[in-house]
Structure formats: structure tokens, C-alpha cells
Amino acid sequence: MRLPPAILIVLGVVLVPVFAQDHQHPMEPASGPAGKITPVGPAVLANASSQPRTVEVTLTAAPTQVSLLPGRMTAVYAYNGRVPGPTLEAREGDRVVIHFKNDLPEPTTVHWHGLHIPASSDGSPYDPILPGRQHDYVFTLQRGSAGTYWYHPHPDHITGGQIGRGLFGTIVVRPEQDPLPAMREQLLVIADKRMTADGAIEWPDPKSLQGGIDEENGREGNVIFVNGEVTPTIAIRSGETQRWRILNASASRVYRLALAGHTFVHVGSDGGLFEKPVEVKEILIANSERVELLVRGTGAPGSRVALQALPYDRYAPPTRPKDWDTTRDLLTLQYSNDAPTAPVAIPDRLRAIPSLDPAKATAHRVITFGQGMINGRKMDMARIDVRARLGATEIWTIENVVAMDHPFHLHGFQFQVLDRNGVPEPFVSWKDSVNVPKHETVRLIVKFDDYPGKWMFHCHILDHEDHGMMGVLEVR
Ligand SMILES: [Cu+2]
Fold first, then answer.
1. How far is the CA of 45 from the centre of ligand 1 (A)?
2. Which of 134, 180, 222, 230 is deepest in the core (most CB within 10 A)?
3. Cβ–Cβ contacts within 10 Å for residue 311, how many?
4. Could you give the CA distance from residue 166 to residue 254 in angstroms, rounded to a whole number?
5. How far is the CA of 406 from the centre of ligand 1 (A)?
6. Which residue, 63, 244, 246, 267, is CA-closest to 170?
7. Domains identified in the chain and CATH numbers
8. Distance from residue 374's CA to the centre of ligand 1 (Å)
9. Which tens digit of pLDDT belongs to each residue from 147-170?
10. Distance from the alpha carbon of residue 460 to the mean position of ligand 1, in angstroms
């Protein structure tokens, strides 16, 4: 399982703990016949444009029935009839036109989570698309924005219900020249649902005990789906390296991901690649965050291993689920019987990310997350909570004063985390979502370099967001 020295050097990591981990968690040999190998990754939206640098797609949100559990049909809301919705693929600099139709029985919007685009295209609660209506979302993808993003509804008060019924899809923005070598890619959308035995998605009465717990904890499901499947199988060859883009599209569940006997090479976050790869044993992915990982096939031919969600205590003690400390299998990584292939070299430098300079900040703000409120107030679309000057660089201190985690999301702008609980961030990266653990503080820096207008910032536990844990930033 040891890597050739050349690979270890290019990764520039401390190796001793990696090998210690390998010896503690030896690879399980395949104990039976290989499971069904499922091709993983949602379909890609077909580009109807023949123009250069243009991606033109059609997207419809509608109620439908899909098979999520074997032998059962589930009533869902779906984009183009699929859960997750089809993937929007485009390149930096492309003009993107989405012909959207709302065939739902209620208003919706499509929010392009993480993209730096005009406020009028953001799909915020200010711009609902009524049932039966159409709307064209048009925007141009920024240079340097290559990365993994997602799209989902963002109507006032009913976002959690619409995402929870199946409305979410991934956006992959590709660069002109990718610094990583070509390799097999897997797009993994993780979303849990509370399913009944007959295959329905269960929604408790908001006034019931469970409804109250859901409002407090955020809704968690008893079934965790990866790309709409339960524990799908991904094929890998011994020695092969794969690039995994992972999205947490769950309402509230946070995943601490690990692959026994393997380490991950963490190469990117919400806003694209890091400057350098970082080797890690596990990854925490909060709601709405994305990670890009390289998974190196260090296992033996014919073996298999589970990608697991390890226990993570995001909860307030009174409503913490009894089974919170259960480790759950998310998918199976199945090695083929082929002889090992030679590992690909991973570059030690991926791109340059200019650091935003705290000395240039013209405003320092404190955003306090209480239970269900931000700075002591619930969301009011008629109120502006933060006014910022176009072109300003600002430092925001996100302070969580309660006993459960709240993931913070800012619309429209990528930021850089400066420090967490006073500990400087070890490396620079672009983020639009960051988990703020219970009683902790995260400081971030953001530049409002373009796009005046009204932008949301909120907790991305969907039940919290829908109950008012959101504010309005006006940039002008
Ligand atoms: Cu929250």
C-alpha cells in the first residue's frame, strides 16, 4: 500500500501518521462476490446552443414519481424528472442561458449557489417564479471560477420543503486548462431523506413533537442517498487516482467522511482548487459545502472499502438524536481484479489564489447566530440588515452563541476564511459556505467587487433558514 517516493514528495505532506493509519485500519479483503457496479454521477444537461462559449439549457421543476428505494415509487419534486437534477456543465467565461419553467403547484426560484453573478440572476426570494410561469436565467461565468457549485430553489419560507422533495443539482465549471491531470471523475451528491416503509418522503406536522425537533435540529433523514441511490458502488482499479467532487445537499446533516485504510488528497473547496493539495484522513462537509478530493486506489485488486460518515456532534444536547454516534456507510469503493496501474503524478501546485488583505478592510461586522435568529432578528425582506459599499473589502465575524452548529452561507460572493476561534486558517481558499460550530467564531474577509443589489446571508440548515435565520446585505 506504500506509495512510490516520487508521489510522496510531490504531495509535500507529513507521512508518518498516514502509514500509522494504514496499519490501524488494514484493507478488508473482498469477502464475497463483487456488488453491482453502478455508474455514478447524474446526467449532464444537454447544451442546445451552437454558439461558441455559450451553454443554453432547459430546466423544468415539476412533481413526479421516481424510484429511490427498490420496488417503491416516491412522489418528489424534480428538475427534468430526476433526483438529483441533471448537472450543469460549462467553462469559465461561458455565457449560460437557462430556460426555466415552474410546473410546481407553488412559487419557486433557482438559486445558483456560489456563483458570482448579478443579483437579478441570483434566484433569491425577491424574484419568485409563480406556478406555470417561465423565466430565463442568464449569466456569464467568471474567469478563475472553475469549481463545483449547485443549484436549488430559494423561495421565501419554503426552500427546505422544495429541496427536501428533490430539487437540487450540481454545477461543474471547468477551467481553460485544468492543473490536475486527466483522471476518472465522480460527482457525488449526498442528501438524506426521511422515508416511510412504503417509499414516501415523510413530513411531520410542524406542530407535532417531531415537527418541533425538526425545527430545532433541522430535518434529518433515516436514509442517506448518494446521487439518489442507497450505498451505490464506485469502481476503481488498484493504483488508479480518481477525482471526486462532493456536494452536501442535505437539509441539516453534516458528514465527516472517511475511507478506511485510505487518505484523501484534498484539492479544492466551494470556490475551486486550492493552491496546493493537502493530505487528510477525513473531511467534514457541512450543508451546502463542496469538496474536491483525489482518491488514490491504494487498495489491493478485488478488495472493497466503504466511504463512511463518522459520528459528528453538531447537536444541542436536548434534541440530539439517540443514534447520532452511529457510523454510516455511504457508498462502496470496489477494486477491479486488474493488476495495479502506475499511479499518476499529482502536481504540488494547483493555482495561485491572491489573499484578500485585512489591512484594506473598510468595515468590520459581527454577525451573531442565535437560535433561529441573526443579530437577534428574524428575516424581513423589507429590511436591509447590512449596507456595504460597492468595491469595499470587509471583515465579518460570524459568532455562534448557541449550543449547536450553524453553517453560514453568503450569496453572490466568494470569501476567504481568516481564522476559526482565533486560529489562523492554514491555507487560503475560496468559500461561500462555512460551518460555525457551537459556541465558536469564524472570521472571514470578502470583497464586494461587483454586482450591486440585495443579497441573502443565512444559516444553511434549511429549517433554520425557512424560520427566519437569514438577513439581507445590500451592496451599492
Ligand atoms: Cu442554523
1. 32
2. 180
3. 11
4. 18
5. 4
6. 246
7. 16-174 (2.60.40.420), 185-335 (2.60.40.420), 358-475 (2.60.40.420)
8. 9
9. 999 999 999 999 999 999 999 999
10. 6
